[in-house]
Every structure is written in structure tokens, then in C-alpha cells.
Amino acid sequence: MSKTSKKSAAAARKERIEEMRRAEKARERRNRILTITISTVIVAGLVGFGAYALDSANDKEEAQSAAAKKPVKGEKSWDAKKLSQNHVAKRVSYPMNPPVGGDHHQAWMTCDGTVYTKAIPNENAVHSLEHGAVWVTYNKKAADADVKRLADKVDKTPYTLMSPVDDQAGAITLSAWGHQLSVKKASDPRVEQFFTKYVQGAQTPEPGAACTNGVTG
Q1: What is the CA radius of gyration of the chain?
Q2: Which spans are transmembrane here (predicted)?
Q3: Which residue among 74, 88, 140, 173 is the one 20 to 30 A from 189 at the CA level?
């Protein structure tokens, strides 16, 4: 091969190498652009989701706040200042049935979504109300389907308990510290309103106190 041919071949190889390098740099540039674009989209999506989640949380908090301020139609209320909170070791004669506050036993009924099929001591249940629980009670006037529906709801709701109270006036009664509501059906929309307002609600004398590890019967 002549010197001219060798030079031409070397120049051609050099050109191919340079072309390959240019192509590689172009691919790297495209990959960087693609990576930056994808990262930007992901970040924008995360920011958007975060803003949505924050807005949703704020909306939920506002809805709960509005529900807490709105009275539940037909509920009875007692002055919290007149409901004593002494621990006693004796039976207490309460002015309402079921009771919504007053002196009570030092041990609370376990109220972590607990369904009792037999009557429970008022004095222990009142202590649960002091901790912010809602106590659902019923008698023989309540339909079996309603009792089951309420039991399912209580079972899924911390800071609630349920038990029969045969001598109460209404078929179904919901009690919180200082507040009480009687309904005929579990489907009554006020049941949900009462739960929303009073499970660990503003009426709670000892918010955050335990509903677990209490007595169970």
C-alpha cells in the first residue's frame, strides 16, 4: 500500500472514530436531557401530590372542625362542670341512664372498639367516657340487624364500646361525657354525626388517655 493510500486509510479511520465519539456524545446529551426531563416530571408530580394531600388533609380537618361545632339534633347535654370526676370504690347512683359522667371507678372499661354482649358496670364505663369514648347501648327494642350494624361500626372504631342496657328508655342510645342521643335505627344519620363529634371530641376531660388495658367484664 502506498504512503498516500495509508494516509487516506488513517484519515478515514480517524474520521470514523470522531464520528463515533460525536454520536456517543450526542447519546449522552440525549440521555441527560431525558433524565432531567423525567426527574422534573417526577418532582412536579410529587409536589402536586403533596399539595393535593395537604389540601385533602386540610379539607378533612375543616370538615371535622365544622362537625364538632354543629349540634347533633335531639341530643341531651349536661353541664360538664357539674359532672364530678372522683374515683370511688362503690356503686354510684347516676341521675341519667345510661350515665354520661360523674364519679366512677378508678379502672376504665376497655374501649378500643370493644363490643360487650353482657351488661357492664356503669362506674367503669363512665371512666371510659372520661377518656373520650362513645358508649353505644341498646335494649330488646332494638332490631337484631341494628345491633349487628352498630357492633360492626364499634369494632372498627377506637375509643368506642358497646353493651346492652335492658332498662334504658330508648332502643339505641349513644353516650359521651356530658352528651347523649337516643335513636330508633342504626341507619339514623345522627349516629355518624355523634361518633364524628364525640369520639375523642372537645368534651373529653382527659383527651389521649388510654382506652386499652382496662377491665373487660
Answers
A1: 34
A2: 33-54
A3: 140
Bridge pairing between strands 134-138 and 160-164: parallel
Q: How many CB atoms are closer than 10 A to CB 151?
A: 18
- Euclidean distance between the first and the last CA atom of the chain, given in angstroms as a whole number: 106
Residue 206 parent element (H or E) = none
Note the Cα 83 to chain centre separation in Å: 28
Which residues have CB under 8 Å from 191's CB, separation 6+?
150, 153, 172, 174, 183
For residue 210, the cross-strand partners are: none
pLDDT for 172 equals 98
Q: Is the peptide bond before 71 cis (omega within 30 degrees of 0)?
A: no
With beta carbons less than 8 A apart as the criterion, state whether 79 and 119 touch.
no
What is the overall mean pLDDT for the chain? 86
How far is it, in rounded angstroms, from Cα 168 to Cα 73?
Answer: 20
Alpha-carbon distance 133 to 104, whole Å? Answer: 14
What are the backbone angles phi and psi of residue 137, rounded to the nearest 5°? -130, 160
Q: Which of 1, 20, 214, 23 is nearest to 126 (CA)?
A: 214
Task: Identify the residue with better confidence: 122 or 1.
Answer: 122
pLDDT in tens, 76-133: 999 988 999 999 999 999 999 999 999 999 999 999 999 999 999 999 999 999 999 9
Closest CA to 81 of 108, 101, 104, 105: 101
CA distance 58 to 166: 42
